[in-house]
Amino acid sequence: MTIKDYIWVFPLIGGFLIILAVLTPAVYYRLGPIYSYIWLWGLKVTSSGSSWVSGFNYIDLVVYVVCTILILIAGIKLIETSNKVRLGRMDLKDVDLLWLELSILAIVAIIIWIVILSIATTSTQTRTTLTTTTTTTTNIWSYHQVGFGVIGVFMGAIITLIGFGLTRYEPTPKKTPTPARIMPQQTTLQPVPSPSASTCPSCGAGLRPIDQFCPKCGRQIY
């Protein structure tokens, strides 16, 4: 078992987070009994009722819906492919680039959604007094906060990108220490001692092994 056997967990979690983000408010405002919730597909629910955040601008609404569909497709495909890898029906090398593309698709779609929503809700107010004229520009982010509908998409895409990065990770193989070479010991031949001389080197008289002196000339035998 290696880390690559569990990489499918990352896109699986990322896909579920993206799906959950589509189902939860992307932007919200709440102050006491007054509240406002906006979903990715443009639905706006407030304390005074429900409506579409784009009002009568259907172009903005189409952009919201298209971005939501792209994000939803990315989440569904991430769950589908990661589950197939888990079951062994797909190989990791066949889906790693797809996970990268789906993550980028989700990030690009949510960024486009944020930009269009910011432009569509931007308004300019001019206040004139006797001495000065003040122009104030506001949009939805001036009084709303980011909800999980936006955060969840980024979290799911980032977690999937981490999984993609791990598919490119190659563990360094452990080096097996090479045993030291044992040199064969060279056998030193000991000189064979020559037998003791059987005659006296001086006079040539015969000697016995027990003789320490020559019986004829008296020379000491070593």
H/E element order = HEEEEHHEEEH
**Head-to-tail CA distance between termini:** 80 Å
Radius of gyration, Cα only, in angstroms?
46 Å
The main sheet comes to: 5 strands, antiparallel
Q: Residue-averaged pLDDT, rounded?
A: 82
Concise summary:
The chain is of the alpha+beta class and 222 residues long. The protein is built from four helices and seven strands, in the order αββββααβββα. The chain has a five-stranded antiparallel beta sheet with strand order 4-3-2-1-7. A two-stranded antiparallel ribbon has the order 5-6.
Describe this protein's structure.
The protein has a domain at 3-123 and 141-167: Butyryl-CoA Dehydrogenase, subunit A, domain 3 (Up-down Bundle), CATH 1.20.140. The protein has 4 helices and 7 strands, in the order αββββααβββα. It has helices spanning 9-23, 58-87, 92-120, 148-167; strands at 27-31, 34-38, 43-46, 49-52, 123-128, 133-138, 145-146. The strands form 2 sheets. Strands 4-3-2-1-7 form a 5-stranded antiparallel sheet. A hairpin with a 4-residue loop joins β2 and β3 (43-46). The longest helix has 30 residues, at 58-87. It starts with 8 loop residues before the first helix and ends in a 55-residue tail after the last helix. The relative contact order is 0.16. Residues 192-196 have low confidence and may be disordered.
